[in-house]
Amino acid sequence: MNELNIKYHNNFLMEVEENVEEGKWVKMCMQCGVCSGSCPFGPHWAHPPQELFMMVRAGKRADVLNSDSMWMCTSCYNCVVRCPRKLPITQIMHGLAAYANHLGMAPKTQPTRDFSLLFWKNCTRTGRVNELRLTLGLYFNDGFMAGIRKGWAMRGIGLGLMKAGRLNAFELFKGHVCKDRKGVHAMLKKAAEIEQRRKHPAS
Amino acid sequence: MTTPIATSQTILVVGGGISGMTAALEAAECGKQVILLEKSPTLGGRTALLYRYFPKLCHPVCGLEINLRRLKGNRNVRVLTLSEVSRITGERGNYTVEVTVSPRYVNENCTACGECAKAVAAEVPNPYNYGLDKMKVAYLPHDMAYPLRYVLDPSAVGTEDAGKAKAACKYDAINPDMKHEEMELTVGAIIWATGWQPYDAAKIQPYGYGRYPNVITSLEFERMSDPHGPTGGKILRPSDGKEAKNIAFIQCAGSRDENHLRHCSRICCMASLKQTQYVREACGEEGKSTVYYIDIRAIDRFEDFYQKVRKDPSVRFVKSKVARIAQESRSGDLILHGVDTEGYHRYANNHDLVVLAVGMAPPVKGVDIPAEILADSSGFLEPGSSIFGAGCASGPLDVNRSVQHATAAALRAIQVINKAAGEEASV
Q1: What ipTM is given for this predicted complex?
Q2: Domain ranges of chain B
Q3: Which of A105, B8, B91, B318 has the most CB atoms within 10 Å of its CB?
């Protein structure tokens, strides 16, 4: 934990370039501020993209990776369209978030992170998204009683969906699965291997 | 019009702005034969449309007058106005150039008395004021026009205005029956001084140029500040004609942007710093200028001017590229949204008028020129071996550097001519 106490890591930009998706673009930012000004969620972030890039360059490792700013990105791509240097800002935001999560440094109670993890677990298990379990998982995320309350509040919509044939209660027990479940798992395993090899070509 | 006699020892200069005039005069004063071609009815180009130069804030009239004086006193230059190159064939030392001459409908008899302009009724948008006002269909482009001769707009030909103008002229100078002419020139070297175009600000969608009347370009602002301009030197808002006192200048409007112009246009920082002084001149202490910038690129000796403006209490600097402009529909005021880089503060600032410091785009192509002419990634001419770019045709330059560049181009062209002359002599 001593490492976290050190405020500046001079090689953090290099670390980002190596480990973060599209991280090599961070150094191209010219700090004009168009991304921050264009972001519809701008006022709600602690650090807008322009500031995050400067923090990466300044080596503020812990401040960047512990931040919840990049988790606030909604992928509207407004910044990417307007960036005078064509930086893939949205991709970098997601890359930083994924890297922070990988290191276990992401904020633990960030709702976007919770949902992402829930979604990933849900869809990779069977190869298909089980919408009922995903929704209920989200409801019960904040505790058992909170889940019951949320479910009760949404019951009208749930029943409506059932009547329209858009929701099947039996999905809760045995959802329909992808035909080649093992194939999906093998594919994901292979993808993880390739990613590993790309990051550490020597091993 | 008589077709000028040209030989392989003649230099052709395309474009009659400050660069073209300089290149033509420098070559002609070295004793070379020069043909100076200009697309519009007058020489002077965009320089004639400036109010003042930076950094000394002197008036362009002075420099233009010296050049026109040189031109009038030199027998080696032939000036062709309303002429455009349509095709170039041949090679270094021996080019054949096809030229189209558009009719002026006014001949040499014109004394610029202005009776024709009084007689006609119809008006067209005035390109010399970037369309901010209108001019009569019989007009003199501007006070520094050379040749000092009126022009009849093509839209007037065939209407009764043409007849009225003809009747009003005491010198029999107006001839609505003039036709387009084609001519062919043989020249040894070509100097391409076609200048620049202001970047189309309407393409920068978040700034609302064309949608919001009070967002204007730096060139329009330049005309507005000029006492001879459309507003008589008053800085007025296009929406309601009120005097603007709180003015925002947005730098890099189009420049340094991969989505628009990838190059830095070099002149806009200085131009905006200069224009903040117009605001001070017009409004005194009440005037407020705010410059929104990424970095101020006031190179070498211009730094002194920048420091002077920095000390001016009427000018504020905000280090930020504005993300978006919104308009208050009732007042027509503009709200600039963005985040500044010095502290990452979010701002929403109100201004009366927004001036976009538009970048320099290369002139629009459309001329069939030999394939060996190369352009850089922005479309400016690369230094070549046979056709020489001069001034802004080769990259964004201010007037001073355009003149230097044009002089260099003239020297290169003279070398080609001398070589061609030597080869002919040895045959």
Answers
A1: 0.84
A2: 10-102+180-196+362-426, 115-168, 198-360
A3: B318
